[in-house]
Design a protein that fits this description.
12% strand, 193 residues, three-stranded antiparallel β-sheet, two-stranded antiparallel ribbon, 59% helix
């Protein structure tokens, strides 16, 4: 959750700040990355993340919410332009599929040093389009893998113990007298007759 801001707002009034954030988010979607001050980048990041989450959802309701949120250019060169519709189409058709495996963290802020004129700290905010590494397996699978070597070790220990017990029995076995064996054989034979 973003930390609430303290102090002066960007642009002065709350309305102007909202307009700045909407415009910067539109430019971020249009170009993929923008260079701005660190403060503005940190402020636009949660706003852009919410828009990208709605775009990733992809349903009609989300599309209408994004249309209502993004900045609309009224006229260019005297002709009305539906730039907002083009921007939303690009967002839903091109940008959102690249974010498919991600569960958040769609943007990245990289600090690039101070600006030459007024020494303001600058940053680049960009949409992350790299593929996501496969998820780690659930804890149960990890536990089963960890227990498998333990189980094999226990089986080996039991085999070794059984072999040592058999060896001890053979060593401790008392050699039988041949005479005693003959007597039992003769007794068994006489009983049969």
């Amino acid at each position: 959750m973003p930390k609430p801001t303290k102090g002066a707002r960007l642009g002065g009034s709350p309305t102007h700040e909202r307009m700045i954030l909407r415009n910067m988010t539109s430019q971020l979607i249009e170009h993929g990355r923008i260079t701005t001050t660190e403060t503005k980048a940190r402020r636009v990041q949660p706003f852009a993340e919410k828009i990208l989450t709605k775009a990733k959802r992809g349903d009609l309701h989300s599309r209408r919410q994004v249309l209502a949120t993004l900045f609309e250019k009224k006229q260019v060169m005297g002709e009305p332009v539906k730039a907002k519709d083009k921007l939303v189409k690009k967002l839903f058709d091109e940008v959102a599929p690249t974010l498919e495996g991600r569960e958040g963290g769609y943007t990245r802020i990289t600090k690039i040093g101070p600006r030459k004129g007024d020494n303001a700290p600058m940053a680049v905010i960009e949409i992350i389009t790299e593929a996501v590494a496969p998820k780690a397996k659930p804890a149960k699978a990890k536990a089963a893998k960890a227990e498998a070597p333990k189980a094999e070790a226990k089986e080996e220990e039991t085999k070794v113990e059984e072999e040592t017990v058999e060896a001890e029995v053979e060593e401790n076995a008392v050699p039988a007298d041949e005479a005693a064996i003959e007597e039992t054989e003769e007794a068994a034979a006489s009983e049969e007759k």
